[in-house]
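Quick start: what a row looks like.
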Amino acid sequence: MNGFWEAWRLIITLDADLYEIIFLSLQVTVTAVIIASVIGLPMGAWLAVNRFKFRRYVIAVLNAFMGLPPVVVGLFVYMALSRAGPLGGFGLLFSPAAMIIAQVIIITPLIASISHQTIRDLWAEYHDLLISMNATRGQRIKALLWDGKRALLTATLAGFGRAIGEVGAIMIVGGNIEHATRVLTTAIALETGKGNFAFAMGLGLVLIVLAVLVNVLIHIIGKTERASTW
């Protein structure tokens, strides 16, 4: 309980180290979600609208990538960005950029898969209308993305929820360097190992609040339940 109250004290008094970690976590995760959405949303829509050979296999692989082990993603990103890797010359390893790359790889399949399912249902509903209007493929995709924006925003929030709680890949490619690449999840692991439970609990409380807020937004946007009429 002492650790719990100390954690609240750190949050309320705006502890500099605590909020530095929070802001870096949000910066990395929000950037990764934006990039993954720019890639994943059109990809899912394109797969829903177009018919081509091996399409089912591509969708199956995309769905399988939703379960990619984060530590494996971190390993491959590490090898690609290391000095001996093909991208080693950019010097991105152990930087926020490396963490963003890892998160993008992890959450893009998730966003693309959810958007594909959403756009597939809309395409079945609007297929005849869009065909009769002689809409091009690009116009069809734009129209479906716009009409399904509420569900697609849910897909984006789901990607944020997964990214903000990621630790394995982030630890590998970021290195958990103080004042540089230390984010909520890696800091919690470090502070717990050091026995600094108050600071770890403060970070944990923030992480829980962020996760709850994301789920509440998904709940509200998706309108999974309607307000009681009583």
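That is the whole record. The two ends are 40 Å apart (CA to CA). The longest helix spans residues 96-132.
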